[in-house]
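New to this. Please check this record:
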Amino acid sequence: MRWGRTRPARSSRAWPVPSSVPESQPVDGLVPVPAAEPAGYDAVVLLGFGGPEGQDDVIPFLRNVTRGRGIPEARLETVAAHYRASGGVSPVNGQNRALRDALQTELAARGTFVPVYWGNRNWVPYLRDAVTAAVDAGHTRLLALTTSAYSSYSSCRQYREDLVEARCATGLGDAVRIDAVRPYFDHPGFVAPFVLGVCSALADFARQGLAPDDVHVLFTTHSIPMADAEQSGPRERSFSAGGAYEAQHRAVAEVVMAAVSAVAGDGTAADATPAWSLAFQSRSGPPEMPWLEPDVNDVIVVLAAAGTRAVVVVPIGFISDHMEVSWDLDTEAAATAAAHDLGFARVSTPGLHREFVAGLVDLLLERLTPASTTERCALTALGPWTDACPVGCCEKGPARRPGTEPSSPAGNPAAQGGPSSGEARR
């Protein structure tokens, strides 16, 4: 298990809630990456994963998610139970509708009047329908914003492939241009809500009499196959075993904890900063296929055995509280913590936080306005990421061997190879 830092000395200092996070700083040793030349974009497309909106949608949606993987219907029903418990409705659709409207409002407030369409990979409204609607309205240069902040095949490259497929599926070909906004994992607008959430959770535990040494900050993201993780990021850059995907998450976690430490005191209050680590959730591959570890529930058990009294779970891999956040964390991880007498707090995802919406519009304006007038913000040494992915970036790792799909196990089906909802890969 790779911990983010060693456990600090005990301190009883309280946790104030910050009003902001540090501004992005120039990164020593890196040449700033220029924005791509403005292409006269005349519409924006918010590109999401999709989710069911009723009981009749659940199984067809899961078939779309698992297409080509040979997963039997009985296994789909296991995951369908997560949706059926909430009426068959995924929260992700309402969240993305609200985000689309918030983006439209913020763009207009800044004097940029372009329509914002919304389309999904796996459910209505499909991306191809959004592209068709945009073209029917006279828009032929579209700028896509994905609901995923990090680099990997499923969270970045596959969405870019979706854009190409949408042009082909609609028969539009070269009649329409569709480009994508860069990965924004370390943009201040994405990071700020997590800093605020961690500080608030730690303040709550302090009011309950817990010192920082009693609390562990546990960052989480969607697990992906190790083969995909190792292929994530451009070939020209060197990363550790988890590739750019894991490196980006660790870098963001470090930025969050540095900001939390600065808020706790004068910026040198290491004794007032709790230990932290990165864990993974929602794996959906066969048990013989290596995926990124450790699992969030396993880490919670280890922390409890080590004497930790409370855990602050921070879903830094996700932009909204969709099914895999509400079920895998608010239900399963919370239950694991309760079973081991561990205090549990889950930080909210950015959602519609004003800093996040403003940050996304900043990213759009990087491409909608001349490069010379646009600041490309990044809080880690890994960014700002490039607008256009180089050849070979985030290629799909080797597929599993045919016939290795296990039979439905007892216990947690997702952890043993059943399909997860997949909503986190957005």
User: Anything to note?
Assistant: Confidence is low (pLDDT under 50) at residues 1-35, 400-419. The beta strands are 43-48, 116-120, 141-146, 177-180, 215-222, 275-281, 310-314, 343-346. Residues 256 and 312 are 13 Å apart (CA to CA).
